[in-house]
Amino acid sequence: MYALVESGTITKYFGYPKGFTLGDVQYPSDIFTKWSVEEKEAIGIYEVVFDDSNKKDETWYINTNQTFAFADGVVTAFYDTAIAKSHADSLWTQQDLDDGNLPSNKSVGDVRGEGLKTTLIRTLKSQVAGILKGTDWYITRNSEKSTAIPSSISNHRDAVRTKQAAMEAQITGASDTAALETLYTFTEQEDGSVTRPLGELPVLES
């Protein structure tokens, strides 16, 4: 990406090489690839330097739009400070009711907007349901035919539910968005394994 700088001000952006007119001169698109850096900058064309130091994982944060600035002979595209997504649900309040903003189908204390904890736990429950579905037929067969459920299957299903409960407790107990992010962040351990504090749901051994 390039920017055109005139009298110290960015006046145009080029997302891809294309011809343009500057003053009375028509420049072809190939100047972006054929001209040297010095030649391009001599007419005010600067390659944009991207500064992503403030950009964060959009799973947990809302990034700002990029801002472009020209200083010390460099055009930089950067993000302002990211905003953490709400880790907890927001609720409709008495103030909302008093101000006339409470929807007719809602009451004070109802969920206004879901936080990360709610969505993460919903995703976890869905994952657990998918895992258990693979062995549900044992339960159905037992119900219909009284065929005993193998202990390995029962133990696996119990282990999945136990781990689910532990994971939900970790999610619920997280103090803020950063703590939630930490739970899901994989790091390499001394033994070379890569794990995350939240852990993983058990896998049925074949």
Provide the helix percentage.
25-40%
The secondary-structure class comes to alpha+beta
The end-to-end span amounts to: 52 Å
Strand order of the largest sheet: 2-1-5-8-7
The percentage of residues in β strands lies in: 15-25%
Number of strands: 13
Number of discrete helical segments: 7
Rg value: 28 Å
Biggest beta sheet attributes? 5 strands, mixed
What's the shape? elongated
Report the uncertain regions. none
Total separate domains:
3
SSE ordering: EEEEHHEEEEEEHEHHHHEE
**Mean pLDDT value:** 96
SSE diagram, text form:
Blueprint lengths: L1 E5 L2 E6 L5 E3 L2 E3 L3 H4 L2 H6 L2 E7 L9 E2 L4 E5 L2 E5 L4 E2 L5 E2 L2 H5 L12 E3 L2 H18 L2 H10 L5 H23 L3 H8 L2 E2 L5 E2 L11
Parallel strand pairs: 5-8
Antiparallel strand pairs: 1-2, 1-5, 3-4, 6-9, 7-8, 10-11, 12-13
Folded structure, characterized:
With 206 residues, the protein is of the alpha+beta class. It folds into 3 domains: 2-83, no CATH class; 86-114, no CATH class; 115-206. Helices cover 36% and strands 23% of the residues. It contains 7 helices and 13 strands. The protein has a 5-stranded mixed β-sheet with strand order 2-1-5-8-7. A two-stranded antiparallel sheet has the order 3-4. Strand 3 and strand 4 form a beta hairpin. Helix 4 (116-133) packs antiparallel against helix 6 (151-173). It is elongated. It starts with a strand and ends in an 11-residue tail after the last strand. The mean pLDDT is 96.
